Fold:
Amino acid sequence: MKLEGARILITGAAGGIGSVTAQVLAAAGARSLLVGRDARRLEKLARRLGGGRGSAAPLAADVTSAAGREAIAETARRWQGGIDAVINMAGVNEFGMFERQTVADVERIMQTNAVGPMLLCQALLPALRCRPEAHIVNVGSILGSIAMPGNAAYSASKFALRGFSEALRRELADTPVRVHYIAPRATATGFNDARVTQMNRDLRIATDDPDVVAKAVVRALTRGRAESFLGWPEKLFVRVNALVPRFVDRAVRKQLPVVQKYSDELISRASDPLPSIGIQSNRKWLQNAVNDR
Structure:
């Protein structure tokens, strides 16, 4: 795919990875329809990318709602003659042991990370199939191949997105639409709070800058690579986990006490007797539920 002049829809565009990806695509001459829930951040990003020249446009909409997806699909059909590609980047997480997560936590994770992107793809497919060349890029996670404690629902949602991407790629093999799946490892954005970041340091989990993911998206669009797993040794463990999962079970078992420690710390901090204003502030990092990465 040639990026110069391409019209690309990006969900989660106001987040750390999404905004950097939009900037990289703009530098290559692409035009972006920027989708997310934070209208102010989207408008600011659009102006930075030269929205006044028509190279970027903001659209505040929620991929988890039917009305939001309808608005996205309708705008995508009309915007500058129709989009050539969609990049699904919207995502949420709730770090913590699964038995302590609420029903609302689990539903929000599954809806935002898996169900929403799937249904948005379905809504966009009739228009994408009419393009001479079209692309769907689903940004998942290494945890969509290697499930980790403290991330049960998140891993499940990313396993679902990976399976969906694989099946849809094969389903659309005789059409102009190409489907790609990208699995980043830990990335330096506001997606994780300070305690999860410190836990990753304690576990010696490497962290990439957002531009690493943005460049992987560009490679998928321009070179047509179906799947990309980012980071070493993470991409090796993806293969090992698929072939010999018990080996990875033993390795992860050694990390479990550290994960439990940070999970317990989060619960402890949430239970502290704080003034109401302090509780609200505390919940911001505890929930760690943002729709834009």
Notes: The chain has one domain: 7-287.
